[in-house]
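Why this split exists: single-chain examples teach little about how molecules sit against one another. For that reason, every record in the complexes split bundles all components of an assembly together and asks for one structure covering all of them. Below is a record exactly as it appears in the raw files.
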Amino acid sequence: METIPQEINILGVYLPPLLLAAAAAIATTSVLVIILNHYNISKYFLWPAGVYWAIIIILTIVFGYTISPF
Amino acid sequence: MNQILSQRFKEAIKLALAVVIAYGIALSMNWDKPYWAGLAVAMCGLSSLGASFGKGLMRFLGTIIAVIVAFSLISLFSQDRLLFMTSLSLYTAACTYFMGAGKYQSFFNVCGFVCAVICFEGKTDSINVFNTAIMRTLETGTGFLVHTFIGTILWPKKSLEELKSTSQDVLAIFLQSNSILINALDDVQNNSEIVNTLKKQSRLMLSLSKVYDLAKLDSSELWDDRKRWFKLLESVTLINSVYQHILVDIDELPTLKLNTTLPTIRTTLFTISETFTKQMEYLNNNEEIQLLDVEPLTITIEQLAAYSSSEQVLILLFVEKINEIVSYLNSTFCNRDDSIRETQISGYSKLLSFDQDRLLASVRVFLTMWVAFILWIFFRVPGDVLFIMMTVSISMALSTMPHIPPGVLVVPAGVSIFMASIFYLFVMTSLSSFSELGPAIFIFVFIISYLFNKPNQAVLKSVSLTMLISITSITNHQTYSIFGIITIILMFILSLLLISTIFKIPQTTSPEKLFILLSKRFFKQLYNFASLDRFSASAKIHLKKRINNKLLANPAKTLSKLSLLSDYIYFNTSEEENKEKLDNFILCSQEILCRFERTTALVETIDDSLFNEKFKSTLSEFNESFLNDFVGLSKDITFCNFNSIYKYSDIIKTFNLADIMNSGVLKNGIEDTKDSSNEINALISSLRSLAKSIDACKLAMRKISWDILTVPRF
């Protein structure tokens, strides 16, 4: 795994790694909350919007460490 | 031909033709970036109903204003990007705020996003900013004019006609209700027919108010005549509620044998039916008709003598209801009464009036713009400034509809990107002239427009068309590059992710959550309106018409948002009928609002010294209890589950005509003056109806499974 931050090339379009990690985090979180809503797990959270933001931040860091170092 | 082609088909043809003509003009004039003209037409697709000339003009004027503001901003702050961005984002946020006011939605939308587009185009190529702005205005203007022109000459959209036809349906159902009443006098009852009529009546009333809301935005003819239509809808709502109350209690009617005691009742009912038929004719032909003079029913004490006291109350109530219908008949579809007061705040005060939803929408657009700007400065975002333009235009379009999650755009945009890519890579490369390109564009635009035809799919249609036009980027010197497509796709994904994240501030915007929030707000606004002491002399001086109208406009506004929102609420499969219950709740709320307005208007005209202490104390008891309920409901929407249902009707039961005649509610007796007694009778009838409406609303609310709606969701 490459740990030096570098731009990611998507079919000729170069993207900054943090942007990509954040975008991947938001996309994953969006899918995750759909599942949580579907199975009514959302009722266990007091402030779902806050949880949504928290998951995005956590996943951005996780993706930053694993997929797209920034 | 008109009958063969569906409205959906015609709308799709109109839009496709407008796009092709706009492209044709821009390409033949050899204008730079001719797809702007096509984009302008695509943005017209944002309107829920067809474009009228007024709307096209609004959009064109919006572009001119946007260009002027863009020039001013560039000339003032071009050397300081922070000042420039602050002023631009504040301007866009202000436009978003004004967009929510309703009437000038398209104007402010164009004012906001076109300004951002020109500013950022200018930033990248400051030498040619003037040319860019002029070209943008020219092409946008062409696009809008072409769309308006096509909309005017080819199957002009008749939203007013739709409103008229729905009104006719409502009148037809009133006619049916009236015939049920006539049959009930002869002891002929059909329970299933009554239930069906009641259901149909509720559904029609709801769709009438929705059609009115949409048509008001679309039809200048309706806008000019809005006061009359508003009054008309109010009367129709009241007639509907009276019929609903009568039909619910119709079981007792045959036992009273009113045919023999009150022979005039049959004639009155027939005349009412005839009036409805005449009004339907008027809506059909738009020719002035001579309205029939419907005599109010009168009943003497001698006629009542044969009945027991409980039956007397029933008869009096029934007669009162019929008279209520007769009185509402006078403010009808064909009565040109200019002295009608309108509860909506109109004009500039509506634009500037405080609305927390609009404020939240503008804050969200402001934040989205800033985040996009920061991303553009600190990262190499795909599409460069195009990313900001796209983010601003999508966020502005979605801001007024927070209940629509940005994720819903993914599928239509995906389909559109796929289709556009195929068209761009495989079809366009083999085309050599506009005679070949034109039909190809026509087909693609037609398909998208046909697929997303419903009013609530307007944003989807607009985004799909924008994607199609952006990806193809048709010019006279066409170049082909897969890089462009990838950039647009990435840009779109990033914009959508950004918007969906920012729009979750401070709360998620699921329709269920918004529905509860708005329902609570409705009761709070109702409390604010109802808690004013209207009986004291000092209050009458202070409570000018304007304050009343303003206070009434707030719950009316909330209700119209609620009725739009109910379409987006989805329950689990086991709770399908909940939707109908929600609609019923909205209908009951509308009725309460109408009743309140009527009662307030009556209270303002009555001299309170005429009331005796007993009446006053019962009235204040009634007032206090429903205010308590409104406060409770504004805090917790499930509040009604813990209260008795028929509380208000029980309190108000003591206010009947017999009671006034016997114990004397009036200080100086019934023989005081005829006018006063009539006014007080009307007030009592109005209070009784209000009580019934509140009870019905509470009952409707108890039936809704609030526990499903109140579950916290992302």
